[in-house]
Write a sequence for this structure.
């Protein structure tokens, strides 16, 4: 056979590079480790103290999360006797898997993505990213503990009430950009204005939904420390616990990628049409990931400022204020499309 | 929301867990419970009955004091009321002075009020910090406990120990102000005033805090009086009563201060009233440092028993040593009571002496024990997430309630 | 009559809280003591570990009587030359009589550092120090013998930087190098 499918091989290499190295699993792990350390350091600086310092004193304790990960790997995994063993063991892993899987449909460069350039990447990625909290309910039900059960119920209430505003804000951006895929959306932003100026209401709605879904303060309700011992993950130990604690940060990473592609202009200063490995593939990706990291750092800073809401207040505001905000954002984008083009 | 006080017999009927009610044990090893167990009956998300299970930190302070000499009860009583040690010390010594018939000199009275007000500030900061961590914000917790440090350093400069100072003895106090105390106190007070503005911006006026605490745990004025709650919780419900004004002791008759009261009696008022009381305490400390009279710091009955070595120590270092009378103190037979307004409420002492070297009956009631009706009567009808709010706002300290 | 209150200033409250948090993020304001790289030099009246002056003590046992947790015990000694005392022979507990006396020994596991003993001594024989962080390796080190008790306590972390705490307008407590 003298026909060697070279484009197929190049596409396979690019695919593996995307999914595993950058911005895939290795980047996710490194960024999660850095953002956990950064959250503790930011909160400590606002609270007039040092935070993690002694693990590697010269670089300000940056290896603390790595030390924690090592500790979780060597701990004894205790499974309660009356828990539903299959669900107990599988559910955190499935949660982590589904949190990462939305990355398949998010391109971070004009020629750098994980699948064939598709016309519907926005819809696919949004659909995958809101499946994850269902596994959180399974986690809460599987451990035989009243506190986890109450945490799972709270997660169920919150999941339903914040889904509709999220979809409506994505719909409003689709209406403005007149496209269903990210690359054209970023291209319209490069030609005109970033999405956050075009439709600030949709940006605000998406930020609030991001805070809710990943459990940042003030919506830290499922892991409420003073009412439920640790919410969903009360009975977990060892790597199950580590994975469960890291999953919200992975969701935060995916949401931030979506946010920076739709609202912050993606790879904005760079207007490339060139398929060159460094200039066309990696540099736009690096810019998008850096913007996503800045958004993550801002959301993580909220831990130092706010306490947490009560469940009925959060659910009520999800169905009233945030829904209103998202409907207004759709109307705003329809008005803009009508009168500004 | 409960509009009337539940009859205690109604509460006994709800005992069965089944399809309608869940029993949650917010037990001793829980981040939001302190050293006690709170059994909660839940109907969905609404609390139906609360049963606080106290007694985990009972350390038999009354029994121990009835078998030790009179002066040895001072460290026992101090270590039970830990954020508020000076007030417990002061209450006990006021009772013993009534039995002995000794009156401390004016400078000692002012110094007693000085350490009492410093301790009131640290106790209120402790309460604000614990309230913050129960609502979920670790910022206010770290700030409040960090802001106690300058005041505790003042106590260390004056007495030599940070918290359990054992500063007040029958007849007066043990040490006098060292050099540099007044300037350092002024710096600390200015720092605290600036920090109170920061607390207001980030905590008191925070919309999330207001949404969590306004109209939660309302205790009306008549209920507060008939349930017998004390301290800032009583004043937040609108009752104008403070032992420092109505039955004054130490230097309080000569000081000029106000007693803040609030109208509504919900958790937000209990937070606001603690901030206001810190401001009043700062005002009082400034007055005390300005008006401090000269003179001795122990009563003459004690001073005349000091031997020449002890008198030399008093002249040079202003340090009062103990004559042998302190060990073998035998107050004349009789009974005495004393009331003191601590940070959390009022401490009440009753001691009966039969002329022996041990007290015959040593009885004291602490403010946290009086604030227990908040759990059984006020928390009913609220949601589960309101239980830490109410718990944090009443500033309940379990070792003090269990004595 | 309780009026139903709504949270006041919803929008400006959020902005002010975030601005205050951001301000604290940027300015240098940590108030942590970097122990054990730095240790504090404490004020001279700090109540730390204490020893006794062998020659001044008259063996009256008032310190044993006043100690609230009963941490002081008196050991029998024999008066030697120059006012110093020598240990009594084994098994002899007699403390009255010619050339016999008692001296105090503190059980550090029970002592609460209230300094009642230091203040009740009629000849002011106790020597206080400002050492507070001695660690004992074995359980029997809590109950020293009289010769061990006479030695002043050893301060750990001798190579640490000594600082003095000062009240500070900006961060409450700041630490400066000790003079």
């Amino acid at each position: 056979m003298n026909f060697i499918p070279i484009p197929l091989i190049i596409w396979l290499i690019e695919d593996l590079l995307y999914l595993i190295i950058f911005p895939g699993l290795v980047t996710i792990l490194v960024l999660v480790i850095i953002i956990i350390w950064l959250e503790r350091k930011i909160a400590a600086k606002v609270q007039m103290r040092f935070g993690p310092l002694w693990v590697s004193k010269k670089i300000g304790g940056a290896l603390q999360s790595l030390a924690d990960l090592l500790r979780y790997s060597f701990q004894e995994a205790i499974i309660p006797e009356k828990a539903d063993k299959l669900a107990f063991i599988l559910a955190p892993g499935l949660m982590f898997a589904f949190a990462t899987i939305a990355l398949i449909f998010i391109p971070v460069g004009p020629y750098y993505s994980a699948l064939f350039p598709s016309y519907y990447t926005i819809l696919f990625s949004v659909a995958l990213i809101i499946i994850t909290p269902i596994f959180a309910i399974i986690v809460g039900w599987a451990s035989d503990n009243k506190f986890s059960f109450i945490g799972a119920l709270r997660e169920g209430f919150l999941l339903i009430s914040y889904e509709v505003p999220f979809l409506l804000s994505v719909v409003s951006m689709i209406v403005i950009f007149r496209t269903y895929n990210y690359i054209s959306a970023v291209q319209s932003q490069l030609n005109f204005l970033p999405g956050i100026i075009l439709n600030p209401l949709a940006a605000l709605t998406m930020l609030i939904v991001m805070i809710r879904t990943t459990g940042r303060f003030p919506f830290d309700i499922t892991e409420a420390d003073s009412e439920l011992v640790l919410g969903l993950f009360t009975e977990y130990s060892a790597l199950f616990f580590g994975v469960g604690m890291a999953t919200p940060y992975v969701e935060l990473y995916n949401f931030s990628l979506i946010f920076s592609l739709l609202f912050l202009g993606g790879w904005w200063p760079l207007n490339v049409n060139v398929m060159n490995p460094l200039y066309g593939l990696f540099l736009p990706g690096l810019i998008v990931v850096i913007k996503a990291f800045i958004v993550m750092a801002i959301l993580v800073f909220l831990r130092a400022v706010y306490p947490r809401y009560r469940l009925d207040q959060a659910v009520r505001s999800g169905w009233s204020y945030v829904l209103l905000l998202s409907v207004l954002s759709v109307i705003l984008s329809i008005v803009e499309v009508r009168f500004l083009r | 929301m409960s509009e009337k006080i539940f009859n205690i017999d109604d509460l006994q009927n709800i005992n069965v867990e089944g399809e309608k009610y869940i029993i949650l044990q917010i037990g001793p090893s829980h981040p939001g419970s302190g050293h006690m167990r709170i059994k909660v009956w839940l109907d969905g998300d609404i609390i139906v009955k609360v049963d606080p299970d106290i007694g985990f930190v009972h350390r038999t302070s009354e029994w121990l004091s009835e078998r030790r000499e009179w002066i040895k009860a001072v460290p026992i009583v101090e270590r039970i009321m830990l954020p508020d040690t000076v007030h417990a010390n002061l209450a006990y010594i006021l009772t013993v002075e009534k039995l002995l018939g000794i009156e401390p000199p004016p400078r000692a009275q002012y110094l007693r009020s000085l350490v009492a007000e410093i301790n009131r500030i640290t106790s209120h900061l402790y309460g604000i910090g614990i309230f913050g961590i129960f609502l979920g914000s670790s910022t206010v917790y770290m700030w409040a406990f960090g802001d106690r440090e300058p005041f505790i350093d003042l106590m260390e400069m004056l007495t030599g120990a940070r918290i359990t100072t054992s500063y007040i003895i029958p007849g007066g106090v043990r040490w006098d102000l060292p050099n540099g105390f007044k300037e350092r106190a002024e710096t600390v007070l200015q720092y605290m005033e600036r920090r109170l503005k920061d607390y207001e911006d980030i905590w008191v006026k925070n919309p999330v805090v207001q949404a969590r605490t306004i109209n939660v745990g309302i205790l009306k004025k008549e209920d507060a009086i008939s349930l017998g709650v004390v301290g800032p919780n009583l004043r937040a419900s609108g009752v104008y009563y403070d032992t420092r004004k109505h039955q004054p002791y130490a230097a309080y008759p000569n000081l000029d201060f106000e007693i803040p009261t609030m109208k509504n009696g919900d958790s937000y008022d209990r937070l606001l009233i603690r901030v206001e009381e810190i401001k009043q305490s700062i005002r009082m400390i400034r007055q005390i440092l300005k008006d401090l009279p000269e003179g001795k710091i122990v009563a003459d009955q004690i001073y005349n028993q000091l031997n020449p070595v002890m008198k030399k120590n008093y002249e040079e270092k202003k340090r009062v040593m103990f004559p042998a009378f302190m060990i073998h103190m035998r107050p004349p037979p009789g009974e005495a009571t004393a009331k003191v307004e601590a940070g959390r409420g009022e401490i009440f002492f009753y001691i009966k002496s039969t002329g022996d070297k041990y007290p015959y009956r040593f009885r004291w009631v602490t403010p946290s024990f009086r604030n227990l009706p908040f759990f059984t009567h006020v928390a009913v009808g609220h949601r589960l997430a309101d239980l830490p709010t109410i718990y944090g706002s009443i500033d309940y300290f379990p070792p003090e309630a269990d004595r | 009559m309780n009026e139903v209150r709504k949270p006041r200033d919803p929008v400006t409250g959020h902005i002010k809280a975030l601005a205050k948090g951001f301000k604290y993020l940027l300015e240098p304001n940590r108030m942590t003591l970097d122990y054990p790289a730095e240790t504090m030099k404490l004020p001279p009246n700090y109540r730390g570990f204490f020893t006794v002056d062998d020659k001044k003590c008259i063996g009256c046992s008032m310190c044993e009587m006043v100690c609230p947790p009963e941490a002081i015990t008196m050991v029998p000694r024999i008066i030697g030359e120059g006012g110093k005392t020598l240990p009594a022979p084994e098994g002899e507990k007699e403390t009255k009589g010619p050339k016999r006396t008692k001296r105090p020994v503190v059980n550090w596991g029970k002592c609460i550092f209230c300094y009642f003993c230091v203040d009740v001594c009629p000849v002011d024989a106790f020597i206080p120090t400002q050492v507070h962080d001695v660690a004992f390796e074995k359980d029997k080190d809590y109950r020293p013998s009289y010769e061990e008790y006479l030695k002043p306590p050893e301060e750990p972390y001798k190579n640490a930087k000594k600082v003095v705490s000062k009240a500070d307008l900006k961060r409450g407590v700041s630490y400066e190098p000790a003079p």
Residues 71 and 110 of chain C are 5 Å apart (CA to CA). The helical segments of chain C are 10-26, 62-66, 116-120, 146-150.
